[in-house]
Amino acid sequence: MRRTFLSLSCFCGLAAFTGCQPSTTETAPPPSNTTPQSPPVAPSGTSAETGTPIADPEVGQPPTPPVDANSGDSGSAAAPAVTPAAGAVAAKPVPLDGDAIAISPENTRIEFVGTHSGAKPDPRTGTFETFSGKLEFSGDANELAAVTIEIDTTSIQTNFERLTTHLASADFFDNREHPSITFESTNVAPGGGEGQFTVTGNLTLRGVTKEISFPVQTTRSAEGGTLRADFTIDRTEFGMDFGAGQVENAVAITVIVGEKNRLVEAPTT
């Protein structure tokens, strides 16, 4: 049986957008020698007519929400999708050694994002500075066979030091008692398109093992291979119950083989 290890993580409470409702009170028209009053301006990021959120024209359409990897529906709101930072480049094929790619922070990015109802910044982003593993293909085809990653939870890094320290504590990762996260695949099934697969397996986090499934997109060429996975997990299923009602249960995770890992930038003030 081939094995697959992947990383995962936890956080934070979604903010809701509300739009302005137009007034129903009639007012007299302004005198002809005055400038007509401008129509009400909707809050930034919402439609003036409906009050619903709209895409930032400089950013584009909102990203498709990541897939919930938990085997059961926890009922919690989905965490925000992890999107490439400004200046991010497309995944670059990583050379293969036979049918395998050695995974490291030099060629793989792991990132998690969550939201909460407390102080800024929100959402909050984190990564891990130390991990290793292997991405394997079957033969010469673009057919995913296995991905193995083992993450050192003591290498966690986030937007700011106080958050990093808290996430390392027993409230969250408890990295003194549980210094690693592993995912071991039990099945890799073809998806609906070229290079698409659904990976199912057992995630072990904080000593708790749960079966999860999530989609991946891969490429395979003479230059090498890449992989991308975007999904969410429910942190409470792994004993991370701290901050109920303030810290959102759903955590969005992105794994990219073909992009160098980067530290999370400190929030601007």
Question: Could you explain the architecture of this structure?
Answer:
Helix content is about 5%, strand content about 35%. Strands 1, 2, 3, 4, 5, 6, 7, 8, 9, 10, 11 and 12 form a 12-stranded mixed sheet that branches. Mean pLDDT is about 75; it is low at about 1-65 and about 70-90. About 35% of the residues are buried. The protein is built from 1 helix and 12 strands; from the N terminus they run E-E-E-E-E-E-E-H-E-E-E-E-E. The chain has one domain: Lipid/polyisoprenoid-binding, YceI-like (Lipocalin), CATH 2.40.128.110. The longest helix is centred in the middle third of the chain and has 8 residues, at about 160-170. A hairpin with a 5-residue loop joins strand 8 and strand 9 (about 195-205). With about 270 residues, it is mainly β.
Secondary structure class reads mainly beta
Radius of gyration based on Cα positions:
22 Å
CATH names the topology as Lipocalin
Percentage of residues in strands: 25-35%
Corresponding CATH architecture: Beta Barrel
Q: State the order of secondary-structure elements, H for helix, E for strand.
A: EEEEEEEHEEEEE
Share in helix: under 10%
CATH superfamily: Lipid/polyisoprenoid-binding, YceI-like
Q: Unreliable stretches, pLDDT < 50, 5 or more residues? A: 1-64, 72-88
CATH top level is Mainly Beta
Mean pLDDT: 74
Q: How would you describe the shape?
A: globular
Largest sheet: 12 strands, mixed
